[in-house]
UniProtKB/TrEMBL annotation:
The keyword Oxidoreductase applies. Residues 141-151 have a biased composition (Gly residues). GO terms for molecular function: 2 iron, 2 sulfur cluster binding; metal ion binding; monooxygenase activity; nitrite reductase [NAD(P)H] activity; oxidoreductase activity, acting on paired donors, with incorporation or reduction of molecular oxygen. Residues 7-107 form the Rieske domain. It comes from Micromonospora pallida. Keywords: 2Fe-2S, Iron, Iron-sulfur, Metal-binding, Nitrate assimilation, Oxidoreductase. Pfam families: Rieske_2. This is Assimilatory nitrite reductase (NAD(P)H) small subunit. One of its GO terms (biological process) is nitrate assimilation. SUPFAM superfamilies: ISP domain. Residues 111-151 are annotated as: Disordered.
Length: 151
């Protein structure tokens, strides 16, 4: 798997659907990736309260302007920016660095960038923020493995 200073390419930006999660295997770790109007977010895929690897199947939303993720199992709500559980103080999901570079989404495990969020539009590569993607289950082909959000 090719990395650049700890950054692993996972998938093309336009493969991520707005407000839908996907699971990616990055250096053996399951990561949940989300593309929202606020940017890209990367958290562990493991729900810290149940221990199940399901967060990529969670419900993306917002609470008081904060981008959130509700666990698909017990519906605890997590702040996508920080990983903190908004319903249970002290509980949190580890977050990871995520960025879009030349149209590719890259993840750095346990190394958040700019507060754990990347701008929603790539800095290069020509993908516009409003372009809908297709995130069908597939191998990303550029470094990490990308899995669908289920359904």
């Amino acid at each position: 798997m090719s990395t650049t200073h700890g950054w692993t390419p996972v998938c093309a930006y336009d493969r991520l659907e707005l407000d839908r999660g996907v699971a990616a295997l990055v250096d053996g770790a399951q990561v949940a990736l989300f593309r929202t109007p606020d940017g890209l977010f990367a958290l562990d895929n493991r729900d810290p309260l149940s221990g199940a690897y399901v967060l990529s199947r969670g419900i993306v939303g917002s609470r008081d302007g904060v981008p959130t993720l509700a666990s698909p199992l017990h519906k605890q709500v997590y702040d996508l920016r920080t990983g903190e559980c908004l319903d249970r103080p002290g509980a949190a999901v580890p977050r990871h660095g995520v960025r879009c570079r030349d149209g590719l989404v890259e993840v750095r495990l346990h190394g958040p960038t700019a507060g754990g969020v990347a701008p929603h539009a790539p800095t290069a590569g020509g993908v516009s923020p409003g372009r809908a993607g297709t995130a069908e289950p597939a191998v990303a082909g550029v470094g990490g493995r990308l899995g669908g959000h289920g359904g």
